[in-house]
Write a structure and sequence with these properties.
Length: 231
């Protein structure tokens, strides 16, 4: 699980950080914020992998729009309380569970991680359990090509997270009333699906995995046309 260390130029890093903080002040949508009485009104609860190549703003502007939870391998169990807060209390009409290609957590959970610190091992065990569950009901076969195989596993992992969410009676009720759509997405950073780099596909809606059925969610308009799966 070793990873090459980044060479840091602290002057550049400090300047970028200062510029970033200042740009946020300058771009702050104060009038919009006031109209909301200074409260938050997110429309998406986003569960994504912490991977720095999977930024929350892949779904557009984040400010007062995205209630964001990130952890390694995008696991509901690791951030369950925060996710339920977004769904049950903030009432976001969308929940997105985003998996991605070349997920380090999926790879690590498929390897020997016994030497890792307790807290990290615990999170990887959660990922490992999800993969085992996903494979239990997977009728197809995993590719011999590692790049494809780990993306297939990431896809199955997203399915497991959505099933787990649907087991929550409060969440299920919102979905049944069409007040909540749970979208499983795959961010294809590496063009594994063959449609180009950085494309996002919808692999699951409300537990539905069949791309043809997903395309039938006409209320989601052209979004549903992104339906695609490897598994
Ligand atoms: Zn990842």
């Amino acid at each position: 699980m070793s990873h090459k260390k980044v060479v840091v130029d602290y002057d550049v890093l400090r300047r970028e950080l200062e510029e970033g903080l200042e740009a946020f002040v300058q771009g702050f949508p104060l009038e919009n914020f006031r109209q909301g009485d200074y409260k938050q009104y997110p429309v998406i609860t986003l569960l994504a992998c912490s991977d720095s190549r999977v930024p929350g703003n892949m779904v557009g502007s984040m400010f007062n729009r995205v209630f964001s939870i990130e952890n390694i391998g995008n696991q509901v169990k690791t951030g369950e309380g925060s996710i339920l807060y977004g769904l049950l209390h903030l009432g976001t009409p969308f929940m997105i569970v985003s998996g991605h290609s070349d997920c380090g957590a999926i790879k690590a959970a498929s390897s020997d991680f016994s030497g890792e610190p307790d807290a990290l091992r615990k999170e990887l065990e959660t990922v490992q359990d999800s993969l085992a569950q996903g494979l239990k009901t997977f009728a197809g076969s995993l590719s011999d090509d590692e790049k494809i195989k780990f993306t297939q596993l990431a896809e199955l992992n997203v399915d497991v997270q959505i099933n787990y969410l649907l087991d929550n009676p409060g969440v299920k009720e919102l979905v049944d009333k069409k007040e909540l759509y749970i979208l499983g997405t795959m961010l294809d950073l590496h063009d594994v699906y063959g449609g180009g780099y950085a494309r996002t596909y919808i692999s699951n809606i409300n537990g539905e995995k069949n791309p043809v059925a997903i395309k039938g969610f006409s209320e989601l308009g052209s979004l549903a046309a992104r339906a695609n799966r490897l598994t």
